[in-house]
Design a protein that fits this description.
This protein has 270 residues and is mostly helical. Helix content is 54%, strand content 8%.
Length: 270
């Protein structure tokens, strides 16, 4: 993220240190389940928890040689853990760690935005009550209309952001998943109970299907986040076949311009 345009708490979620820390946690939780099932020796999870560490620069150095980020990460972790490191990631595939890690990052980012929306809603509600009887002029078709109150306008914005909050909550729920299903998602080399344990430890739900986390969930998340912000009210060309369908500023002559034929959109000179 670009530092000058990001807040520290949001930028921290997407730092390489956080990215690999989440992956290490996922590996620890998976080892806990594998131990309980008798798949790997007892003490592996404890060794990983106590000695598990990584250096981002060292991971990048190994990656330049092996051309595989997850192998580079596991190699670096094994350098710190010792002999127990050979049992880490057993039965798993790279997407198990990478997709689950991204889901954790997205939910953490959504939590920050939801908290921001809660603060904004509280401010809008407070100001709407404060200006309940403050007169102002309403607008219709881009020009002055009947009188209204500033509080009513703010109440309208409150209702809009309340709907935006529901959209963001839906996006968070959609992406808050965990997937530990092995190569090509068949569970052929790993017990489904490992996924259940990791999901419980992360506070996530299991993915609805076995293979890699569907990209449609990510697209849904980003679309919901984009639609969670209020957009300026503006006029739009209503021509059914308008090739541009762009927003038109409510000010000036263009707001009153209309398409005279369906073949010539709002950009027609008048």
């Amino acid at each position: 993220m670009i530092p000058r345009y990001s807040r520290p708490e949001m930028a921290a979620i997407w730092q390489p240190e956080t990215y690999f820390r989440i992956q290490l946690d996922i590996e620890i939780y998976a080892c806990e389940a594998q131990e309980a099932l008798g798949v790997i020796p007892a003490g592996t999870a404890q060794a990983l928890r106590e000695r598990g560490a990584f250096e981002v620069e060292r991971i990048r150095e190994i990656e330049r040689e092996v051309h595989h980020e997850t192998i580079a990460f596991l190699t670096n972790v094994a350098e710190h853990v010792g002999p127990e490191g050979r049992f880490v990631h057993q039965g798993m595939t790279s997407s198990d760690v990478l997709d689950t890690c991204l889901a954790v990052q997205l939910t953490r980012a959504a939590d920050i935005l939801i908290a921001d929306l809660d603060a904004l809603l509280a401010a809008l509600r407070r100001r709407a009550v404060e200006h309940k009887y403050t007169p102002t002029i309403a607008r219709s078709h881009g020009v002055h209309a009947e009188p209204t109150t500033f509080g009513l306008k703010l109440a309208g914005h409150w209702a809009e952001f309340a709907r935006n909050r529901e959209r963001l909550l839906a996006a968070r729920k959609e992406i808050a998943t965990c997937q530990i299903s092995g190569a090509v998602g068949t569970f052929a080399n790993i017990d489904p109970r490992v996924e259940t344990h990791v999901a419980d430890r992360l506070g996530r739900r299991r993915s609805s299907r076995a293979t890699a986390t569907p990209r449609s969930s990510w697209r849904w998340h980003w679309w919901r986040r984009r639609s969670s912000g209020s957009r300026p009210k503006s006029a739009t060309c209503s021509a059914p076949n308008c090739a541009r369908r762009r927003n038109i500023s409510p000010r000036g002559r263009r707001a009153r311009r209309r398409c005279r034929t369906s073949a010539i959109p709002c950009c027609r000179k008048t």
